[in-house]
C-alpha cells in the first residue's frame, strides 16, 4: 500500500508517525510533501525512514491513499496543484476541519472515494479518538484499510458526515474541556492548604491512574465510582456536595456551544465558497 501526505504539519506528523510506528504500512511506502518547507520533510525522512518529493505526478502514481493535511484555507491552492495528476487509484483522506466531502470532490474535480476524518490532539500519544465519514462510493475493503490506518494512532468512531459536528465537540475539543476541569480541580485542591506543586503533581498522577483504571477495567465508569464510594464515607460526602449542582446541564451547554460553532464555521466555509 502506498500513502501520500499532502501537508506534513502538526496533525499529519502525529498521523504518519503513528502509522510508521505501528508498521501498518512500511515507512518506505509513505511519501510526504508540503508547500515549501523541505527541511521539515528531510527531518521526518531521517527520523522515520519515510520518503519525500515535490513531484506530484510521481507522488500520485499508484498512490492508494492520499491524505489532505493542509489548513482548510490552503486547500484550494492544494487542489489546483494536484488536480491534473489525480488518477483512478487515488482515494483521499481529508484531515481538514469543516470542509465537506462534496466540496473536496468539487475542488479536486474527481468523484474518487473520499473519507473525512476528525482526529484529536491525543494522536500525538497514539490515543486520538478519530471521527470518520466516508463518501458513498468507498468500498468495504477500502473502509477496512482506512480503519486500520486510523487505529495506528488511536480509535475510530464512524458516523454519517452531518454528525461530524458532534464528534468535533465531544472528542475533537474534548481534551481542552477535560484539561479545564482538571485545572479547576488543581485550583480547589491548592486551596486546601497543600503546596501547589505537590497538588499539581498528585492530580497529574491521579488523572493518569484513573485513565488506566478506565482502560483496564471491564466495569463502566458508574460502577468504578460506586466501588470506591462507601455509605457515609468521605467520597460520599464529596459526591453529595457535587450533586447540588447540575453538572450534566453544564456539560450539555458546553457541548452544544461547540456543536453550534462547528456548524457555524462550516456554513461560513460554504458562504466563502459562494463568494469565490
Ligand atoms: N492540530 C490539530 O489538533 C488538528 C485537529 C483536527 C484537525 N486538524 C486539521 O489538520 C489540518 C492541518 O492542521 P495542522 O495544525 O497540522 O497545520 P500545520 O501544522 O500548519 O501544517 C500545514 C501543512 O500544510 C502544508 N501545505 C500548505 N499548503 C500546501 C500546499 N499547497 N501543498 C502541500 N502542502 C501544503 C504546509 O506546508 P509548509 O510547511 O511547507 O507551509 C504544512 O506542512 C487542518 O486542516 C486542521 O483543520 C488539526
From TrEMBL:
Its main location: cytoplasm. The keyword Lipid metabolism does not apply. Residues 161-265 form the Pyrroline-5-carboxylate reductase dimerisation domain. The keyword Amino-acid biosynthesis applies. One of its GO terms (cellular component) is cytoplasm. It catalyses: L-proline + NAD(+) = (S)-1-pyrroline-5-carboxylate + NADH + 2 H(+); L-proline + NADP(+) = (S)-1-pyrroline-5-carboxylate + NADPH + 2 H(+). Gene3D superfamilies: NAD(P)-binding Rossmann-like Domain (3.40.50.720), ProC C-terminal domain-like (1.10.3730.10). InterPro entries: 6-PGluconate_DH-like_C_sf (IPR008927), NAD(P)-bd_dom_sf (IPR036291), P5C_Rdtase_cat_N (IPR028939), P5CR_dimer (IPR029036), Pyrroline-COOH_reductase (IPR000304). It is an enzyme of class 1 (oxidoreductase). Keywords: Amino-acid biosynthesis, Cytoplasm, NADP, Oxidoreductase, Proline biosynthesis. Its EC number is 1.5.1.2. One of its GO terms (molecular function) is pyrroline-5-carboxylate reductase activity. Pathway: Amino-acid biosynthesis; L-proline biosynthesis; L-proline from L-glutamate 5-semialdehyde: step 1/1. One of its GO terms (biological process) is L-proline biosynthetic process. Catalyzes the reduction of 1-pyrroline-5-carboxylate (PCA) to L-proline. NCBIfam families: proC (TIGR00112). Belongs to the pyrroline-5-carboxylate reductase family. This is Pyrroline-5-carboxylate reductase. It comes from Staphylococcus argensis.
